[in-house]
Design a protein that fits this description.
The complex is a heterodimer of chains A (about 160) and B (about 100). With about 160 residues, chain A is mainly alpha-helical. Chain A has helices at about 15-35, 45, 55-85, 95-115, 120-125, 135-155; strands at about 5, 10-15. In chain A, about 65% of the residues lie in helices and about 5% in strands. Chain B is α+β, with helices and mostly antiparallel strands and about 100 residues long. The chains are: A mainly alpha (about 160), B alpha+beta (about 100).
């Protein structure tokens, strides 16, 4: 189904119930990642990259100032999206909902890319060559479609 | 020439006009349309400028998207990480 639909009062969710169920599961897993031991999870390097690649001390200080806020933001985003998927929220997105969706879809793709070992065009190609990761790779591509559709829906002239 | 180590010099240098930059790096995950959207939404760039910078990230592997005081660049980088983009703070290149 078309993931998002623009109506006069704003953007509405258009996902099918099966698609919502898949995304619900993914957001629950992302919430576990965000509330779990991030220091031991390589995805942290993608969601919270070093701000100063050549300066460990400055990067550590930046992290001290920003990390907790960023984790809280990302956790709020995933909670908001989960509430939309499970029917706690309904109707039209407000500006905060739009941001939560855009950013949560990004964090989901960053996390799945890490699990698939996608670091560049070559590894991206390799991850679609079959094997155990093929199901997850399909999900990754679908999330890309969903996000592309949301960006288009939000930015196209009305 | 200074007797201070570069690190100490950095940390004590708080002049507002000290040039620092925000660098956004290419990554295989983020969609071109999303990167363009983020540049427009966060920096207030017009669509043409946002697309030009997005293409620079894509083609050259990185682009400088802002220049200014260190604190402001760190705020931009934190915002970029909030959007899920790969961004770093660096000293402005010497002309």
């Amino acid at each position: 189904m078309i993931p998002f639909v623009r109506r006069p009062d704003g953007v509405h969710l258009g996902l099918s119930s099966g698609e919502r169920a898949l995304l619900t599961s993914l957001t629950e897993q992302l919430r576990q990642v965000l509330t779990g031991d991030l220091a031991a999870d390589p995805v942290a390097g993608r969601m919270f990259p070093a701000a100063y690649p050549d300066d460990d001390e400055a990067s550590a200080e930046f992290r001290r100032w920003t990390h907790d806020d960023l984790v809280a933001q990302k956790t709020t985003n995933v909670t908001t999206v989960h509430e939309w998927l499970t029917g706690t929220r309904e109707g039209a997105f407000d500006a905060a909902d739009e941001q939560a969706w855009l950013r949560c879809l990004t964090d989901l793709r960053l996390t799945i890319a890490e699990r698939l070992g996608i670091v560049d065009a070559e590894t991206e190609e390799a991850s679609s060559d079959g094997g155990a990761g093929v199901g997850l790779r399909d999900v990754y591509d679908w999330l890309g479609y969903v996000q592309e559709h949301l960006v288009t829906t939000l930015t196209d002239p009305r | 020439m200074t007797l201070l180590s570069p690190d100490v010099e950095e940390r004590t240098d708080t002049r507002a006009d000290t040039p620092w930059v925000t660098v956004v790096w290419d990554d295989p995950v983020n969609l071109m349309s999303y990167v363009t959207y983020v540049f427009q939404a966060h920096f207030g760039f017009g669509r043409d400028k946002a697309e030009r910078l997005m293409r620079q990230v894509n083609d050259d592997g990185r682009a400088i998207v802002a220049t200014g005081p260190r604190e402001a660049m760190e705020a931009h980088v934190e915002a970029m990480h909030g959007y899920g983009l790969q961004a770093t703070v660096d000293r402005a290149p010497t002309p």
